[in-house]
Specification:
alpha/beta; nine-stranded mixed β-sheet
Length: 303
């Protein structure tokens, strides 16, 4: 059984789209199992359906308004660099309404339902493919894996939305008396889950460089400090996921093909810049083309 695993990474998902497009179109890869965490959960339904062009349109036309119904920060340029500052009015408005988060991402929820229709959901259910979304249950402190085969259409859209919600900047999903948030908080790269579901060969797209390539600038405000703290935690979650995944692959004799970003794409994946995301998609495709054209092989972990 072949599986495709896509990590979290916010706007960097555009790069994963380019990588996946090359694997599917040029290398004729076909998968039985698709697993995604955070932005990866947005990609996998379209990839399972073979709707590459629709996915490309989605990831190259999205912007801040497409995601946030109440954006908790401003993005402005200072000396050519994008800097995030707090939108005090929007944050205060959320507090006045007694919301639990600084901002809200209800527009993303609408976008998910528009991009993954009920017909798409039924089409996937009628195939032998399985699509699995990772969510973090903050109430029970558990990682949960939501498979399309066990969900209604409404539930499946909710789980994708929850998996993408980078709280406290985005909305919190309250469902079945539990609070759910970004799947990346618990499992950023769900390799082990793919193995446990029977995968014998896995293509893994990791939206980060293989080695740490930068030191972060000092925090400018509470938001940037909180973002840096989360990035620190997620970096260690990623390393843990990869270590456990590689050990599981060695134990089960599973072939891993791991694809990293060649450079640091952004230091803030909550900034959805259309021009950059168009370039990242193209970069992902070109990166894979260059690897195969030069007869380079993906990083493998064999027993």
């Amino acid at each position: 059984m072949k599986a495709l695993v896509i990590s979290g990474g916010g706007s960097k998902g555009a790069f994963a789209g380019g990588v996946a497009e090359y694997l599917v179109k040029e290398q004729k890869k076909e998968y039985d199992l698709y697993l995604g965490s955070s932005t990866g959960s947005l990609l996998i339904s379209h990839l399972a359906l073979g709707k590459i062009e629709a996915l490309k349109k989605l990831y190259t036309q999205v912007n801040q308004r497409s995601i946030f119904s109440n954006n908790p920060f401003f993005v402005k340029k200072v000396h050519g660099e994008e800097v995030v500052t707090i939108n005090h009015f929007n944050v205060l408005w959320n507090f006045i309404r007694r919301r639990k988060t600084f901002g809200e991402s209800k527009n993303l929820r609408k976008l998910i339902r528009e991009s993954v229709s009920e017909n798409d959901y039924q089409t996937l259910k009628n195939t032998s493919k399985d699509v699995v979304v990772v969510v973090s249950n903050l109430t029970t402190s558990q990682i949960e894996y939501k498979t399309l085969r066990e969900c209604s259409y409404d539930d499946f859209c909710d789980w994708i939305w929850a998996s993408c919600n980078y709280v406290p900047f985005m909305s919190l999903l309250v469902k079945d008396n539990c609070e759910y948030a970004d799947g990346g908080f618990g499992c950023l790269v769900p390799i082990r889950e793919a193995i446990q579901r029977g995968a014998t060969e896995i293509d893994v797209i990791i939206l980060d460089t293989e080695l740490q390539q930068l030191n972060r600038m000092p925090s400018k405000n509470p938001f940037s400090l909180l973002s840096n703290v989360f990035d620190f935690l997620l970096e260690h979650v990623k390393k843990h996921n990869l270590t456990i995944g590689k050990l599981a692959a060695k134990n089960k004799d599973v072939k891993l093909n791991m694809y990293y970003t060649p450079t640091v794409l952004t230091t803030n994946s909550l900034i959805f810049n259309q021009k950059k995301m168009i370039k990242w998609w193209e970069d992902g495709y070109a990166y894979m083309r260059d690897k195969y054209d030069s007869k380079m092989t993906p990083i493998k972990y064999d027993s």
